[in-house]
Design brief:
single chain, mainly alpha, three-stranded antiparallel β-sheet, 10 helices
């Protein structure tokens, strides 16, 4: 009898070890982003996933204002060749953040960049249901201790999201102070189409 119980326990342990990891692509993506930006908060995680879902959709709302602000923001930041030109903005790597400081350092065309944003906005069709589903997966990863985010922070921020119908948000103050983000979100394939000389380049 004791031997049978021991065998059963061993089988259960083996079954648990062979279980597929929970949302591995999403977990790897969030962990990589957290390693690169350890001061990021729950709001910054959500902003990343929001951008991955909707891309630069604000472009289509007021193209002339978006074009002017792009030029002003880039020039106010100044060039920085040490910063990566692009960084992954979605778990599958198809959406990227294009950092303006290294873009300026490479003396690339902001007119072409704006066309990238316009085409990306037209092509990326975000889904409220998909964003909510992805955010639920974040909660499941936190419960499983698969990503370094406090459960309480997630619960509090989720209440805010539900009350406000999952809105667009700003970066946290800590993130902004530490990393001075200045970028635009686009589809990687469209960026590489307009800037073929950078294909396969700096995306992390």
């Amino acid at each position: 009898m004791i031997r049978s119980v021991a065998i059963l326990a061993a089988l259960l342990i083996l079954a648990g070890c062979s279980k597929e990891p929970l949302h591995p692509e999403l977990a790897a993506f969030i962990n990589a982003e957290h390693n690169a930006h350890p001061r990021m908060s729950i709001a910054d995680v959500y902003k990343l996933l929001y951008q991955a879902e909707y891309g630069p959709r604000h472009i289509v709302q007021n193209p002339s204002a978006a074009r002017e602000y792009l030029s002003l923001e880039a020039k106010s930041r100044g060039p920085n060749p040490s910063q990566p030109l692009t960084e992954a903005c979605s778990p599958d790597g198809k959406i990227v953040r294009i950092n303006l400081a290294p873009f300026l350092a490479k003396n690339l065309s902001f007119e072409k960049l704006f066309r990238v944003l316009e085409e990306s906005a037209a092509e990326i069709n975000g889904s409220d249901a998909e964003l909510r589903a992805t955010w639920k997966k974040v909660g499941e990863l936190i419960e499983a201790f698969a990503i370094p985010i406090p459960k309480e922070s997630y619960q509090e921020f989720t209440r805010y999201l539900e009350e406000n119908k999952y809105p667009e948000v700003h970066h946290s103050r800590e993130y902004t102070t530490e990393y001075h983000p200045a970028y635009r979100v686009a589809r990687k394939s469209i960026f590489e189409k307009h800037f073929p000389e950078l294909r396969g380049g700096a995306a992390r």
